[in-house]
Every structure is written in C-alpha cells, then in structure tokens.
C-alpha cells in the first residue's frame, strides 16, 4: 500500500470512530497535505466555511510582521508610539515613569506578555464575562472599541509589560488597530490584500466586515453590482450586510449552537476570520513556504518563549506543540507550529514531514478530541514516511 493510501486508511478509521462519539455534532472538518508523501487528505465537508477562532491570530501576527519587514515599525517599538493615547489609556499597568501603555511593545503584545487583560476569558470586576455575553446576548454587534472598553472598564491589568505570560485577546485587538493606524486602511482590507489574495484564499473573509472573494466574483459574473471586500475589485462599493455574514458551519459554545449569532463579532483581529480547510492549508503553505514572510521573521514569531499549557509553548503569535508534554510516550513526534482556537480549531505545520494540518471540531467541548486527532495524524505521517 502506498504512503498516501495507508495514511488515508488509518485516518478514516480514526475519524469514523470520532464522528460516532461526537453524536449530533457530526463529522469534523480535517485536511492534511504533505506533498513529498503524496498526501492530500480530506474528511468531513471540505467546502463548508467555518469560524476559525484564535487560529486567526496567525494572520494578525503575519500582518504585523510584514509591517516590521517593511520597517514601518520594529518589534520593540512601544505600542504607545503607534496608537492614540486615549485608546491605550487604562489598559496597562503604568507608573509615573511610563507612558499610557506602560512601556509595552509590539513584541509584548504578540507574545502575550504586555500585561493587558483578556476581554474574552479573563476575570471581570463586574458583570458577566464576554464568553457568557456571547451566548446571552446573541444579537449584539461588538466593535473593536467595545472590546477594548471591556478590558478598560471591567478588568484590571495582569502585570507590568514583560513580567509574565498571560494570554490576551485584548492585546490582539490592539495589534489589529496598529495595522490600521500604520497602513491607513481597515483591518479587513489589509487582510484581503496582504494574506487572502497572495495565498489564494478565495473563500475567506473577516466575519461582519468583508465578503469572500469567491462571493464577490459570483456577483460580478451574474452582472450584479460588485460587493466590496476592501481591496481589489469592488473596493469602496457598499457591502450588503448579508455578504459579510456568509453561511458558516455549525459551532457550539458549550451546548449552544451559535453559528448564526451576531455576537461572534467579539473576535475581530483576535480570530474573527471565516475560512475553509483548503484555504487554511494554502495559508499555512504560503506562510511556511516563504511567500508571506522571510524565514528569519517567521522564526522570530515561532520561537517558543513561554508555556501556554502542558505540551504547548507560545512564541509571538504562534504556538509550538511538544507532544512529550502530553505523555512521555509521544516525545518522539515532531513539533508542529501554528495556532489553535477555542472552538477546537487548528492550523499547524509539521516541519519534519513538511505537512500542513487543518482541523475544525467546532465546539468548545471538543478540544481534547481534536488533540487526539492531531496526535493520530502525526503518527500516521510517521508511518507513511517509513513506507
């Protein structure tokens, strides 16, 4: 049996079992591509767009790093030099000797060491947490300013910049605003221009802000008025609300199906992208293939600095999985780099087998099962490489 066939047989068996155990959640979306092994594998609905959650931080980090490469600013540039003072005020622990951002740099924000709170999951001084508000107020539309206000008004900084690692969606909203302030363009416009278009991601968009290029092209081919995605054809045209809310695969926050909730607008630059397995494979390949960033810049993002949780290290907008942290029996597996999202979404690149891996288990309760599948994929890749 050829490597690709043995890989598919093994993964099909594993994912069929996982699908049965997921019940009404149905099949997960899984995609793996390893060109040297002849593997181009799909499971589940290969065409369904889904909410990528914090996997989107990879795209935000890439945009920021591109601007560093263009010398618009440096990784060690203070955030206060790049954003309006009133926007960063109240978000950081400061002293009489530091500015409104407490001395936090772009790199501090990327590496979650800026000391800013996490509006999505962090403790609040009053009222419900954002994760609970997403479910209890499904029709609420959140703006980036609203998200920052949660941390400013109802949370406290978690430490001085550089003191400790504390995962922060608030920090990534600030990075998205840095992209906007530096380029003079809306965040979604820059996403389409600098990542989606170069990587060929025609089914991807920033939910509630832009439309996938494939949808725009379909309207144009039918003779309709172009709908905008920010950059390229149709830019500046009015975007119908329905165009920025494409149908996406079901997802669950706890036990609640939330794919139609307006409150999913709570992500933005921290993970508001909708995409497909194929588009995310293309993104991972472009990112690790040198099409989006120079190798040395990518290495800066990927280099592990802090412990995220057992078995996962965090760099600057990128994670590295160390399977030995899950079990010593897994220590021989490769160390893929990429990111995960709260909905058990994954995008990883395995440098040993030059493989790109995309998973969508579409539920906050499916993280363990998604990692079991990632482990099975790595084992199957090792087996295929030996054949």
Structure summarized in a few sentences:
Helices cover 35% and strands 13% of the residues. It contains 12 helices and 13 strands. α2 (57-69) crosses α8.
Layout of helices and strands:
Blueprint: H1 3-22, E1 29-34, E2 39-43, E3 50-51, H2 57-69, H3 85-88, H4 106-110, H5 130-136, H6 144-154, H7 169-183, H8 187-199, E4 205-206, H9 213-221, E5 252-253, E6 256-257, E7 273-275, H10 277-288, H11 295-302, E8 306-309, E9 312-314, E10 319-321, E11 337-341, E12 345-350, E13 355-360, H12 367-386
Helix pairs in contact: 1-12, 2-7, 2-8, 6-7, 8-10
Keywords: Hydrolase
Domain Beta-lactamase-related: 45-365
GO molecular function, one term: hydrolase activity
Helicity level, as a percent range?
Answer: 25-40%
- Biggest sheet, open or closed, and with what strands and sense? 8 strands, antiparallel
What's the total helix number? 12
Looking across the biggest beta sheet, what order are the strands in?
2-1-13-12-11-10-9-8
Rg, Cα atoms, Å: 20 Å
> What structural category do the secondary elements indicate?
alpha+beta
- The share of residues in extended strands comes to 5-15%
Low-confidence blocks of residues: 229-237
First-to-last CA distance: 9 Å
Shape: globular
The average pLDDT value, as a whole number, equals 93
What is the tally of beta strands? 13
Q: Helix and strand string, N-terminal first? A: HEEEHHHHHHHEHEEEHHEEEEEEH
Number of domains: 3
GO molecular function: hydrolase activity
Protein name: Serine hydrolase
Keywords: Hydrolase
Domain Beta-lactamase-related: 45-365
Task: Explain this structure.
This protein is α+β, with helices and mostly antiparallel strands. 35% of the residues lie in helices and 13% in strands. It is globular, with a radius of gyration of 20 Å. The strands form three sheets. It has an eight-stranded antiparallel beta sheet, with helices on both faces. The chain has a three-stranded antiparallel beta sheet with strand order 3-7-4. Helix 1 runs antiparallel to helix 12, helix 2 packs across helix 7 and helix 6 packs across helix 7. It folds into three domains: 168 residues; 129 residues, DD-peptidase/beta-lactamase superfamily (Beta-lactamase, 3-Layer(aba) Sandwich), CATH 3.40.710.10; 36 residues, no CATH class. A hairpin with a 3-residue loop joins strand 11 and strand 12. About 2% of the residues have low confidence. The protein is built from twelve helices and 13 strands. This is Serine hydrolase. InterPro entries: Beta-lactam-related, Beta-lactam/transpept-like, Diverse_Enzym_Activities. Keywords: Hydrolase. Pfam families: Beta-lactamase (PF00144).
